[in-house]
Amino acid sequence: MSAPLDYDLLRTFVTAAEAGNLTRAGERLRLSQPTISLHLKRLEDRLGCRLVDRGPRSFHLTGEGETLLSYGRRILALSAEVVDRLSEPTMAGTVRLGTPEDFATVHLPGVLAAFSRAHPNVTLEVTTDLTLHLIDRFRLGEFDLVLVKREPLGPSEGVRVWREALVWACAAERDAAFADPAQALPLVVSPHPCVYRRRALKALDDAGRGWRVAYTSTSLAGAQAAVRAGLGVTVLPAGMVPPDFRVLDHKAGLPRLPEAEIALMMGTSPPQPSDRLAHHIVRSLTGEDRELPGSAAASPSPLPVTQ
C-alpha cells in the first residue's frame, strides 16, 4: 500500500489553494511563506507531479492540483467532523446565526453542513441581512452569532474570519462601456446601509469619478440579474465574481477598493451549541484553532475544517 499523505502538508496545500497566494495562506496558518513553499514542494515530491504553477504575481492550480484540492477538502472536513461527532455526540439546542447574503451563499454552505453532520441534534436558524441591520439585531438579542462585513477594526468589534480583495464587476460584454471616465458610472448596489455601497461611493468620490445609482436590490440574485442585463457595475469580493462577469481593474480608470473583511461576533459565555459553532466557523474559514472573546471554553477539535 502507498504511504498516506501527510496531514499538515495537505492542510497547507488546501489553505494556499483557497487563499490564492502564499501570503494569505501564511496568515491563516501562522506559518512563514518559505515554510508554505516547502510544504508544497514536499507534497509535490510525494505525489510525483506539479500541483501549482507559480509566478511573481500568479498562483494557479494545475489539473493535478485541482484534483487534489477536491479530495483534500473532503479529507480535512471528514477528519474534523468525526472528532466533533465523537467528542460531543449528544449536544443539542438551537443556534441563531445572522450573516450577509453573499457570504452565506458562497462560503457558508459547506461549513454549516459539516457542523450539522457532526451535531445532528443542533438546529441552525440562519438569517441573511445587511451588516448594520445584523449588528443592531444582534445587540437586541435576536441572534446568538453574527458574521458581519467591517472595516479593519480591533478585536472588540469581532474576530476576523475572512479577508478578500473587493473588485468592480460588470457583464462581460459591457466592460468597455463603463471605462469612460467622462461618463457617470452606473452602479448596481444594495440599499443603504451597506458596507460595500459605502466603500464604492467613497472610492469614486475620492478619485473624482462621477457616479449614479442605476439599480438597487435587497437580494444578491436581483443585483446580479441587473448586472447581467447591463444596467451597471457592482462591487463584489474577488472570489464571489460569477464566471460570466468581467472584473474591471484599475486600467479601466476605476479606483482600487479596500479589502473585504468578515468578522464573527458572539455574546459573552454563549450556550454550548453557539460556542461550538463559533469555533467551527473560525477553524473552517481561517485554519486556526483559537479561543474566542466571550467563549466559555476552547474548541474540542484541534483540526481545521475547510470550506
Write up this protein.
There is one protein chain. This protein is of the alpha/beta class. The protein folds into three domains: 7-82, Winged helix-like DNA-binding domain superfamily/Winged helix DNA-binding domain (Arc Repressor Mutant, subunit A, Orthogonal Bundle), CATH 1.10.10.10; 91-163 and 261-286, Periplasmic binding protein-like II (D-Maltodextrin-Binding Protein, domain 2), CATH 3.40.190; 166-258, D-Maltodextrin-Binding Protein, domain 2. Helix content is 40%, strand content 21%. It contains ten helices and twelve strands. Helix 4 runs parallel beside helix 6 (109-118). The two termini are 30 Å apart. The model is unreliable at 297-307 (pLDDT under 50).
